[in-house]
Amino acid sequence: MKGYVFHGPGQSAWEEVPDPDIKEPTDAIVRVDAVTICGTDLHILKGDVPEVQPGTVLGHEAVGEIVETGGDVRSVRPGDRVLVSCITACGRCRFCREAMYGQCRGGGGWILGHLINGTQAEYVRVPYADLSVHALPGAVANEDAVLLADIFPTAYEVGVLNGKVRPGDTVVVVGAGPVGLAAVATAHLFSPERVIAVDLAPTRLQAARDLGAEAVVDAGEGPEQLVEDLTDGLGADVVVEAVGVPATFELCTRMVRPGGRVANVGVHGAPATLHLESLWIKNVTVTTGLVDTHSTPTLLRMLAAGRLPTGPLVTHTFPLDHMQEAYDVFGNAAETGALKVVLGVPQHEVVPVQQTQTS
After folding, report:
1. What pLDDT sits at residue 31?
2. Three-class SS string for the chain?
3. Domain total for the chain?
4. Nearest-5° angle of CA 22, CA 26, CA 31?
5. Which of 257, 287, 317 is the last residue of a domain?
6. Which residues constitute the domain of residue 79?
7. Cβ 155 vs Cβ 182: under 8 Å
8. Residues paired with 34 in a beta bridge
9. What pLDDT is attached to residue 348?
10. 337: alpha, beta or left, given left = phi > 0 and alpha = psi -120 to 50?
11. Taking the complete model, does pTM exceed 0.90, yes or no?
12. What CATH number corresponds to the domain at position 224?
């Protein structure tokens, strides 16, 4: 089969790789029918995630069909159409028992495209399949479902739930990339008074409007003043940081009201200053987190019921073997206007994976 392989910083290729096979009785092999690219994949290609070894197939988000299962898998079987979660859960360790699957200590957590071969390939091995794939309703399209592998549960859990969005709140989302836009969409599930989106790109601000943001503002044109004006000087109840740079985190802490919440979602690669000299007296809560994907079943039900707006987020689609072109488009989002790119396999191009004997 073919997969998109990381060979070191700045080096990657769509090339022949060995077919995956069942290694543990809890494994499943999934034929990949739709896959997307994450900003984390770009960080890996830049060399920012040293745990990823050269030779690793990238990717941690996919939709596909089960083609083989280990002897202990009970929740899915060959022929089932499934969502492959970005987080793998053993189900037995302390953190999994607390639904903190992202912190799994039993061989799970974020492993696909990180510590083991990932989803940007024709087939992928998924460990602990019973808890790490989700059966899909037939009415849900691949390009919609794949957005629930990572960005929607991340935005919902680490942004909206950690931020404790409540009816009547003013919510500010700083960063209108894919995760920030998903935060705009899912914040509305809790009936806030308003959601304000902050970004530098006009196309992303328009996407935020399309997803329900009542106000948008260019990050260079006084977002703090706008928030102050709209809240009679109080500040926002919840501010979601969805960029991952020091300046935006510090901006969030300046826009939150006393007693408010700052929910950090962005992946930070450099230290940010926590201005306790001004925050200590304001009763502000700051949360961080890696997605656990405990909300994925709920989000899938909402998607199937038409309650989750995913369509505006997919801006480009490609055949699966156009992986490098898709990376170029996604990596140059300022020029291309890309939000999420989805790659899929036309049905007539599907080639059966070599079957292996399962004990």
Report:
1. 98
2. CEEEEEEECCEEEEEECCCCCCCCCCCEEEEEEEEECCHHHHHHHHCCCCCCCCCEECCCCEEEEEEEECCCCCCCCCCCEEEECCCECCCCCHHHHCCCHHHCCCCCECCECCCECCCCECEEEECCHHHHEEECCCCCCHHHHHHHCCHHHHHHHHHHHCCCCCCCCEEEEECCCHHHHHHHHHHHHHCCCEEEEEECCHHHHHHHHHCCCCEEEECCCCHHHHHHHHCCCCCEEEEEECCCCHHHHHHHHHHEEEEEEEEECCCCCCCCCCCHHHHCCCCCEEECCCCCCCCHHHHHHHHHCCCCCCHHHEEEEEECCCHHHHHHHHHCHHHHCCCEEEEECCHHHCCCCCCCCCC
3. 2
4. 50
5. 287
6. 2-149+293-349
7. yes
8. 63, 344
9. 34
10. left
11. yes
12. 3.40.50.720
- Are residues 57 and 79 both part of a single domain? yes
Asked whether residue 328 falls in the same domain as residue 276, the answer is: no
Strand partners, 30: 66, 124
145 and 6 in a common domain? yes
Distance (Å) of CA 6 to CA 3, 96, 150, 263:
10, 29, 20, 32
355 within domain boundaries: no
Indicate left, alpha or beta for 326 from its phi (over 0: left) and psi (-120 to 50: alpha).
Answer: alpha
pLDDT at 355 (0 to 100) = 39
| Residue 314, φ and ψ in degrees, nearest 5 | -90, 110
Are 298 and 237 in the same domain?
no
The predicted-structure confidence for 92-111, as pLDDT tens digits, reads as follows 999 999 999 999 999 999 99
| Residues of the chain falling short of pLDDT 50 | 345, 347-359
